[in-house]
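Example record

One chain of 179 residues, shown exactly as stored in the release files.
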Amino acid sequence: MTIKIYTKVGDEGQTKQVTGHMVPKYDLQIETLGQIDELESWLGVACSSLSNANLNLATEIRYLQRKLYELQADIAVKRSHNIQDRDITVLEEKIDKLNKEVPEIKAFILPGGKQVGANLQYARTLARRAERTAIRLNDTQQPLDGPELRFMNRLSDFLFILARYANFMDGYEDVRAKF
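Predicted structure tokens for this chain:
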């Protein structure tokens, strides 16, 4: 059986939610899901750019992609509760572990570095944008009744330290932002 790629449902600027309800493609839930999808896709770019020194990060990136898929389900299907408090704890533990392996920073740093680190820094900004949209969704249209927002907040923190770790493993030294 082949899945049909095009449905023509969205040809007039509407899309169908999981509930079957038709909404404009700019609906806040659809926008939130799209931004999470964009982040998930960019993580695929980051994974494809892994250097030999960072091949171990593929597992971490794939883990995040799967969690983002679960997060989308939680937002799209009200009875879906994939993201749990334990997922936030896991991210915090990963952050703490990696933070011990990179040089301490005492100032703001410029995003960038080697390709992997720069891709992960960009993923961090996509995560922050998706988080802001999810907060707006929560505050105005669809309350998110679980740990989704906390997970999204911690996700960008994890991506920041993951980027720093990737740059460190590639021999890149963070560049301080000067004020």
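Notes: The longest helix spans residues 115-140.
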